[in-house]
Design brief:
It is built from 8 helices and 32 strands. It has helices spanning 2-18, 185-189, 212-215, 336-345, 374-377, 379-390, 394-402, 432-442; strands at residues 20-26, 34-40, 45-52, 55-62, 67-73, 82-89, 92-98, 104-111, 116-123, 129-137, 140-147, 152-159, 162-169, 175-176, 182-183, 202-204, 219-224, 227-232, 238-245, 250-257, 270-276, 279-285, 289-296, 301-308, 320-324, 330-333, 347-355, 358-366, 409-418, 447-454, 457-464, 469-475. The strands form 8 sheets. It has a 5-stranded mixed β-sheet. A 5-stranded antiparallel β-sheet has the order 26-25-29-28-27. A hairpin with a 4-residue loop joins strand 11 (140-147) and strand 12. Residues 5-17 and 372-395 have low confidence and may be disordered.
Length: 477
């Protein structure tokens, strides 16, 4: 109880002093308004797209959060469910909308210089193909589909108001099922778990540190330069990786062996991985022991770490923390065996984030959403939630990341390493995103929220319905 009260006090004090109010704007918004943002680092400006049933209001702000321009227009037809992505070209901002099956794509082009909004639709003639990924990379929007029962991918590229289709045939590649049987890419992508639905990847982007909910998914997508990287961890012996070069639409395949952990008489093993810059971190465990392996992208093992149930974990820089839906609902676990048992029994996850020559690693597990329907629907609830998060566009990535622990039990430790993955002793510095999470938890009256980075600082925006204004808060590591 004493540890719980101390932790709650530290969270309260940190929340009170970690944020800086930078701007409040009189900006009346309608009910049930959604928002996504485009950060233009080159011009040091921010564009916010507010949309509801009445229409779309697009606001452009400078780095001081002063409104420099705005354009309002109609919302696309009802058949277009929501904004799924964006692209930017020559001071024109494109928002892309999709029908429920993604066969119809529409864009709205906001031309601030000429004060006009253009609208165009595309009808995609899917022939036995299904969408698996929607993402913006370097201001170009990509819709990726796969042909049923094959290893053939189609990349629909949206740039400068035009669409181009690129096909990548991976039929000559070998893929492995969770049972290590040879298969095609369709079977790998179409694999269903209670945590992640079929035909989806969880985007892992650099905007904010990925939550354990995001990184617990076994099919993930990363962006590195102008490369799109898919990772697969359903197989507990290997992490399978596909690295797509978006400059020429070639692909490189790589297989990374998971560290060895023996199966016990009480059950098998669990595994997952996380990519950070030019390294991949893999975890494998049973209920008594966990192995971590850090490899370069060539597959050379650089570091290994071990956690054993009966011993103190030598590489942790925090207590063992368990959250139950909210940061305020937090308790401290005493023993390493509690952590290993909960990681093994839930959905194991590892997340890394680099800042100022330090690597911040969070290791733990996350449950399915805890609600009244969880028992009734089981995997459907977890799968549907995963589908919503996995399909999140990069502009909504951070706000989905922020709320991804809601209604879930999350158990974790925080660890600190230098840039070469040597463990660093001492108290772990609180990251800006952790400060932001605590602030948002304390100020849950804000709606139409947004989270983004600008000029190396992290910002949170929220709308106050009572005061009818929109405020921006700044957080720094």
């Amino acid at each position: 109880m004493k540890k719980n009260l101390t932790l709650l006090l530290l969270i309260t004090v940190s929340t009170a002093f970690s944020q800086q109010l930078v701007k409040t704007l009189a900006l009346p918004l309608g009910k049930k308004t959604n928002v996504f943002q485009v950060v233009d680092d080159e011009k040091k400006q921010l564009v916010l797209f507010f949309n509801n049933n009445e229409g779309v209001k697009t606001v452009r702000l400078n780095e001081n959060f002063e409104i420099t321009d705005s354009i309002s227009g109609n919302r696309p037809y009802d058949e277009y469910d929501d904004i799924i992505g964006y692209s930017v070209s020559n001071n024109k901002y494109y928002s892309y909308w999709a029908s429920s099956n993604s066969k119809k794509i529409a864009y709205q082009c906001y031309d601030f210089e000429n004060r006009k909004i253009d609208f165009k639709t595309y009808e995609l003639e899917f022939v036995k193909e299904k969408p698996i990924e929607k993402i913006t990379v370097n201001n170009i929007f990509y819709l990726v589909t796969i042909l049923k029962n094959t290893s053939i991918l189609n990349f629909y590229v949206f740039k400068d108001g035009q669409m181009e289709k690129k096909t990548i045939d991976l039929s000559d590649k070998t893929f492995l099922t969770w049972e290590t049987a040879k298969t095609n890419l369709w079977e790998l992508v179409n694999h269903l778990t209670e945590f992640q639905p079929t035909l989806s990847f969880q985007n892992i982007l650099n905007e904010t540190p990925a939550s354990l909910t995001f990184s617990a998914n076994k099919k993930k997508a990363y962006v590195k330069g102008n490369h799109l990287i898919f990772t697969f961890d359903e197989n507990k012996k290997f992490t399978q990786v596909l690295n797509f070069d978006l400059n020429n639409f070639t692909v490189a395949q790589k297989l990374y062996s998971q560290p060895y952990v023996q199966e016990t008489e009480f059950g098998g093993v669990e595994s997952n991985s996380f990519m950070l810059d030019d390294k991949i971190v893999q975890m494998k465990l049973n209920s008594d022991i966990m192995q971590l392996s850090v490899k370069d992208l060539e597959g050379t093992e650089l570091k290994t770490f071990e956690a054993v149930a009966e011993n103190e974990i030598p590489f942790k820089n925090s207590e063992i923390i368990q959250e139950n839906g909210k940061i305020k609902n937090t308790r401290i676990l005493e023993n390493s065996n509690q952590l290993l048992r909960k990681i093994y029994n839930l959905n194991p996850s590892i997340s890394c984030y680099s800042q100022s020559d330090r690597i911040y690693l969070t290791l733990g597990s996350v449950s399915l959403p805890q609600n009244n329907n969880a028992i009734m629907y089981g995997g459907l609830i977890g799968g549907f939630t995963g589908a919503l998060i996995g399909a999140a566009i990069s502009s909504n990535y951070s706000i989905n990341n922020l709320s991804s622990y809601e209604k879930r039990k999350v158990v974790y430790i925080n660890c600190l390493f230098d840039s070469n993955f040597n463990h660093v002793d001492g108290k772990l510095k609180k990251l800006a995103f952790d400060q932001l999470r605590a602030f948002a938890d304390d100020n849950d009256y804000f709606v139409t929220q947004t989270v983004f980075q600008l000029n190396s600082s992290l910002y949170y925006g929220g709308y106050n319905n009572e005061k009818r204004n929109y405020s921006f808060y700044k957080f720094n590591d």
